[in-house]
Amino acid sequence: MDRSFVAKNPSVLVFLAILSLFALGVTVLSEGFGIGVISTSFVKTLGKALCLCLIAVAMDLVWGFTGILSLGHFAFFGLGGYMIGMWLMYERTRLIVVDSLAQADIPPTSAEVVDAIGTQIFGVVGSSEFPFIWAFSHSLTLQLILIVLVPGLLALIFGWLAFRSRVTGVYLSILTQAMTLALALYLFQNDSGLRGNNGLSGLQNLPGVTASQDVVSIWFFWASALALGMGYMLAAWIVSGKFGSVIRGIRDNEARVRFLGYSVEVYKLAVFTLTACIAAIAGALYYPQAGIINPEEMAPIASIYLAVWVAIGGRGRLYGAVIGAAFVSLLSTWFTGGQAPDIPLGFYTIKWVDWWQVLLGVSFVLVTLFAPQGIGGLFDLLSNRHHPDRHGSNLGPDDGALREKEAS
Amino acid sequence: MLRLFLAGLAILCACLTANAQEAGLQPLLQEHQATISKSSRKTIKPAIDAIAASGLPQAQAMLETWVAKDMWMRKSDGLFFAGEKADGAYVLTDFDTGEVVGSFEKSDLKQLKPNSGVRAMIATALVQFQLTDPSRSKRAAALQSIQRDPDGTLLEPLRASIDDEPDADLKAQKQRLERLLTIGYEADTAARVAAIKEMSGDLSVDVRAALNPLVVTKRQAAVEVPTEANVTVLLEPGSEALSKADAYDLLVASDLAAPLISADDIRAALAANIDGDRVGDIPVAQLNIDVARTQAYAALAEAGVAPALITQADIDAALGAHVFFETYAEPSPEVTAVAEKALEQIELKVGVNQMLDLTLDAISLASIYFLAAIGLAITFGVMGVINMAHGEFIMMGAYTGYVVQQFILDHTLSIIVAIPMAFAVTFAMGVAMERLVIRWLYARPLETLLATFGISIALQQLAKNIFGTQARPLTAPGWLDGAWVLNDVVSISYIRIAIFVLALIFLGLFLYIMKRTRLGLEMRAVTQNPRMAGSMGINPGRVNMLTFGLGSGIAGIAGVAIGLFAKVTSDLGNDYIVQSFMTVVVGGVGNIWGALAGAGMIGFLQKGIEWMNPSNTLAAQTYMIIFIIIFIQFRPRGIIALKGRAAGD
Amino acid sequence: MSTLLEVSGVSVTFDGFRAINNLSFQIGNAELRAVIGPNGAGKTTFMDIVTGETRPDEGRVIWGEKSVSLLRMSEAKIAQAGIGRKFQKPTVFEDQTVQENLLMALKNKRGWLGALFYRPLAGDLDKVRELATEIGLKDELTRKSGELSHGQKQWLEIGMLLAQEPRLLLVDEPAAGMTPQEREHTTDLLVQAAKSRAVVVVEHDMEFVRRLNCKVTVLHEGSVLAEGSLDHVTSNQDVIDVYLGR
User: Fold this and answer.
1) Closest-CA residue in chain B for C42?
2) Which range of residues forms the domain containing residue A294?
3) Percent of chain C surpassing pLDDT 90
4) Which residue of B442, B451, B632 is in closest CB contact with A402?
5) What is d(CA B290, CA B275) in angstroms, rounded to the nearest whole number?
6) How high does pLDDT run on average in chain B?
7) What is the domain-level CATH number for residue C131?
C-alpha cells in the first residue's frame, strides 16, 4: 500500500529527497559536524525555518484543503513551545539548584529543592509557588505528551463550539483570531503561571547535555527536518485518500458534502485538531532553537503571517506551503536582520529594516490579486496544467450578489 | 485629651500673664530661649504653645519668620530678631516694635534653622492665625492644610474662627471641617455621636476618612479580656475567622508563647552542631528527609543545645490558656457603634452610586466601540466586505488630527478642521482601496481578508516610518478638559460625554443616509442584487466605491475622537480591530441596531468583568472573548439577526 | 404500497412570510412523483425541510418503516438514512476527478476515521465503473469534473446520487439547460431509478413532466393545490387559474 501511495504521489518522494539532501548539506557545512562554513546561529535559523515549514503544512491542511482560514494556529504552536519549555526550564533550574544546595552543610530535602526551583523560576513575577499547571513539569515523558494533549484539547473544545454552531468563512476566521488574542492576553498576566510577559527563557540549553551549542543546534536541525518529513508524509497521505476528497469537498461546497451524508462538523473538527497537534510539535521544536518564548509570539498577527506564507507559497498544495514558509521567513530574516543593502534614492534612503513590512504587505496584496496560486503556481506553468474555475456555493442569493452564503 | 488640657491651660496662663503682653514677645522668647535656640521636635512644644497662646498680633509674623529660617539670635545678649541680608551683613528687625535694630556681621549672629519636624509644628501653630487672616486665600490655604493633616489641637481655633468668617463659602467649609474634626478629636462623646449622625448621609471621601479610623479593629490575645477594652468580637481558635496557626502566631507576637521551630531553624541548628559526619547520632548524608532531621533535632534538644520542638500539644495548651478577640482602637463603644452604622449607610449609598458610575463608564466604553465599529457596520455589515485595514483607517484619522494640530494651533479650531480632513483622507484611501483591490475580490471573502490584511501591515509600517514609534499627542480643546462631577463617587469626563454625543450623531447620520437618501437606497439595492440594480440604471461599481468610502471615512472621524483620549501610535488600530469585529458579529451583521446592541453588550460586559476583578484588565478581556465565543453558540447570527432566505437559510 | 415519507401539517414562516402553509405530502416506495408549481410556491423550501436544511415551525416529517421523525436529525444523518438531493444547478466537486466524485458518494462508512483509512477495494471501483457507464461518463473517469459540460455535470450529479443508494431521491429541475437528447437521457435515468426507489422531481417544464408519465403534485402558496395524473391536474380549474389566470 505504501508503495502505491508514494508511486501515486511522486512529489512526496521528490520532496523527501530534497529535504534529505538539504539536511545532509547543512550538516556537512556546519560548525558542529562539518567544515564550519555555516555559522551555528544560521543553522538555528534554518532549523527554525523547517519548523515554520511544518506549521505551514498544517495550515495548508486546514486552510488550503479544508477551507478553514484559521487565524489561531500560531497559538497552538506557542502552546507546544510552552509545554516543552516548562520541562526544559524546570530541569535546568533543578540541576543548578541541586548543585548549589549540595554545597550546604546539610543535604537538602526534596521539598527544599522544589521550593528553591520555584523561587528561581517565579521570582521574576514575585512568586515562589508552583502553579498547578506545572504539576508535570518534572517529567519529560508527561510533558512531551502534553505538547500534543494541551493544544489538541484546546483545538477540540474550541472547534467543537465553533463548528457545531456552523460558524464559517470570515466569521470563523475572526473567532479564531479572538481565541488567539484571548490566550495571548491571558498569558501576558503574571498570575497565568507561565511568568507573564517574561515568558520562558534559556530554552536553548538542554539539561544534562554538555555538548556545545554547535552540536546541539545540528541535533535540533535534524529533529526539525525529520518532523517536517514525517509531517509532510502524513499530510500527503491524508489528502490523497477519500478523507482528502471529503475535506476538499467541504472547502468547495460544504452543503453538498453534508447532503452526501458526511458529517461536515466532525471532519472539520478532526482536521482542526490534528493540525493543531502538528503545529504544537512544530512549536516544541522551534522554541528550543529560539531560546525564549513569550506571549508576544502568540499574538494574532503571527497567525496571520502564517496565512501569508501559505498564500504566497500557494495553498492547496503541500509543497507550496513549505516553499512559502521557507521563502518568506528566510527573506524576512534577511531583510529585518539588516543584511539587505539599503537603496539610496538621493533624497531618501530606503532602509529595509523599515520598509520590509511595507514590501511584504504590498506583495501580499499583489499575490492575492494576480497570482492566487502563489509561487506553487509556477510549477503549473511548467507542467502546463490548467485549473478548472471553481465556484462556491450555489445556495443562497443570486450569482453575482456580493453576499456569499456565510455564517449559516 | 492631655494636649487639649495643656492647650486650655496655656490659654489660661496667657490671660493671667496679661502683663507679659505689654512687655511684648521678646520676654516670652527669652523665657524659652534655650529650647528655641536648640530647637528639637521633642522639646520645642511648650515654646511654640506659649507663643501661639500669647495672643500677641506680632506672634504670627514671628512664627512665619521662624519657619522661613529668617530668625536670628544675637550672640551677645541672646535676643531674637528677624534678619535680612544686606551688603554682606544682616539687618535685624525687632519683632515687637518692627524697628530696625541695626546691621550686624554674620559672625555675631546665629541663624535658627528649625528642622522639618519643628517646622511642621510651627505651621500647625500658624494655622490658627491664618484661620482669621484678613486674606481669603490664606484662610482657604489654612483650611486645606487642616484637611490634609487634621489635628485635635486645631479644633478650638477652628471653632473660634467660624463666627467671624465673612465669606459664606469658607464658612460652610469651616463648619463642615469642624464637624469632621469633632468626630475624630472632640472629648465629649455625645458631641461626637451627634456629629457622626449629622454626617452619615455624606458620600464624600473625607467623611469616610474621618469615620474609618474609628472602626479600625485590632486582633489581640490575652489571658482574659481586659475590662476597659472596646471589644468587637471574641474569636475561637480553629474557627474560620481565626485558624489555629494564626492564633498561635498572635500569641508569639504578643510574647505570650514561645515561637515555633521552623524548618529553617532546624536546618540551621543541625548545621551548627555537625559533629564529625554526624548530627545527634545520625549521619549527615541521611539528613535529606524530614523524618531524619526531626529525629536528629530531637537528639540535639535533649542534649540541651537547641530549644525543644513545640509540639501540637504545646500549641493546644497555649491556645486554651488564652482568649482571642478584636478590639476597636477607639475606646468609646457608643462612638464605634454609631460610626459603624453611619459607615454602613454610606457604603450602601456609595454602592448605589458606584453602580451608576459603572453604568456611565460602560456607556462611554460602548460608545467608543460603537464609534470604532460603525464604519465596519457599513463595509462589513452592509456590503459584506471584510476590511482588516479598518483599524488602520482609524489610525490614519487620528494622525490626520495630529498633523492638522501642527498647523492650526488653536485646539478647538483644529478639531473642527480635523474632522472633515480625516473624513476626506480616509474616504479617499477607502475609495482607492476599493477600486484597486477589493472590487476584484468580491466573491472571495477570505482572500479579501488576507489582501486587506496585507494593506494593514503596509499602512502600519508606513505610519511608523513617517511618524516614528513614539506616541504623538492629539490634544483636546480646553473646554473638553475636566469632568462632570456629580459627587465624590460619580464623575465622567467631558471627552467621554463628547464621544457619546458623537456616537449618537453618527447613529442618526447612518440611519438618515441609509433610509432617506438616494445613496442609501442604491446601496441597499446593490447589496441585495447588483445585477438587478445595474439593469435599473444604478452603477454598482460607483455605489460600492462610495459605500466603502463612506465606511472608511467614518472610521477616520472615529480615529480623531479616539485619538483625543488614547495615544496616537501606529498600532492604534490593532487595539480596536478585534473588538470592532466582535461588536459587529455579536450584534448581528447588516444592521446598525445590531452594531449598537453589540457595542452595548461588549461595553457593559467588559466593565462588569473589570468591576468583579478590578486588578486585572487583561483577564477581563480574556474572559470577555471567551464569553463572546460561547455567546455565538446560542446566537450565531448575533443579537439582532436577519431572518429568512435572504440571510441564507 | 407502504408510505416511505410522510409530511403532515408543516408550516414555515420567514420574517412573517408563510413559505409553507400546512403542507401535507406522502410518497411510497418505488414511486416517481413530479412536483410542479409557480415560482414562490414553496417547492425548494419543501425540499429544504425534508433534507433538514430548514426547521419547520410546526408539523411532522416521518420517515420509513420505523416512522422516525426527521425533524431532530442533522442533514448528514438524514442523508445517511437514505434521502438524496440534487440541486438545481449542478453541484459536483469540480476540483476532483469524476472517479473521486463517485467514490465519495459511494455508499460506505461516513465516519472520519473510516474515510481516513479507506482505500478503494476492487468491488468499489467496479461499482464506480458500472455507474459511470450508466450515466455515460465511462471515458471521463480520470478527468476533473470541472472540465465536463453542463449536461455531463448534471448526469455526474445524478450518478453520485445513485451511488449513495438512497431510498428517496429529491431532484430539483434536472433538465434545465439541457439539449433535447440530454433531456431524453435524463428522463430515462430517472424512470430507471424510480423502479427501485422513490423519486421526487421538481420541474417547470410540462413536456418533461409529461414524459416522466407519473403522478403530479401541484404546489401553490405553500400548500398542495391538486394531485393526480398530469391530465387530471391540467384540467383542474384552480391550477389553470394559478398558472394562467394572473
Assistant:
1) B645
2) 2-299
3) 0
4) B442
5) 19
6) 82
7) 3.40.50.300
The SS3 assignment for B93 reads: strand
Q: For residues B296 and B278, give the distance between their C-alpha atoms in angstroms, rounded to a whole number.
A: 9
Q: Looking at the domain assignment, is residue A287 inside a domain? A: yes
Question: Which of B233, B270, C216, B399 lies closest to A107 in space, CA to CA?
Answer: B270
Strands (E), B502-649: none
Considering the domain boundaries, does residue A45 fall inside one?
yes
Hey, are the CB atoms on C85 and A394 less than 8 Å from each other? no
Residue-level pLDDT at A78: 95
What is the pLDDT at residue B23? Answer: 64
**B270 near A CB under 8 A:** yes
What domain count does chain C have?
1
ipTM of the complex: 0.85
* Cross-strand partners of A30: A38
Q: Residue A234 pLDDT > 50, yes or no?
A: yes
For chain A, which residues lie within 8 Å of any Cβ of chain C, measuring from their own Cβ?
Answer: 1, 238, 241-243, 245-246, 248-249, 252-253, 255-256, 258-264, 266-267, 270, 387-391, 394-395
**How close B397 comes to chain A (CA, Å)?**
20
List Cα–Cα distances, C14 to B43, B80, B302, B648, C50, in angstroms: 91, 99, 90, 11, 17
The tally of CA atoms less than 13 A away on the side-chain side of residue B147 is: 16
Compare all CA atoms of chain B with the CA of A358 and give the residue at the minimum distance: B458
In whole angstroms, what separates CA C40 from the centre of its chain?
18
d(CA B273, CA B280): 8
* Gap between the Cα atoms of C100 and C92, Å rounded: 11
Q: What is the pLDDT of residue B2?
A: 55
Nearest CB to A105 within list B271, B527, B649? B271
Q: Which of B447, B466, B618 should be substituted to probe chain A, the one whose Cβ sees the most A Cβ atoms within 10 Å?
A: B618
Q: What are the angstrom distances between the C-alpha of A70 and each of A178, A252, A305, B436?
A: 11, 16, 11, 26
| Inter-chain touch A406–B581, beta carbons under 8 Å | no
Summarize pLDDT for A195-207 with one digit per residue, the tens.
888 889 888 888 8
> Is C92 in contact with C160 (CB distance < 8 Å)?
yes
| Residues with Cβ within 8 Å of residue B114, at least 6 apart in sequence | B39, B44, B66, B67, B69, B122
Tell whether C128 lies on the interface with A, counting CB pairs under 8 A: no
Burial readout A217-254 (b: 16 or more C-beta within 10 A, e: otherwise): bbbbbbbbbebbbebbbebbbbbbbbbbbbbbbbbbbb
Domain boundaries, chain B: 2-73+112-130, 217-258+310-328, 261-309, 366-573
pLDDT at residue A385 in the model: 58
Taking CA–CA distances from C55, the nearest residue in chain B reads: B649
Partner-chain contact B581 A400, CB within 8 Å: no
Q: Which of A243, A253, A388 lies nearest to residue C116, judging by beta carbons?
A: A243
Q: Which domain holds residue C95?
A: 3-244
Chain C residues within an 8 Å CB radius of A241: 115-119
Judge contact between B336 and B328, C-beta under 8 A.
yes
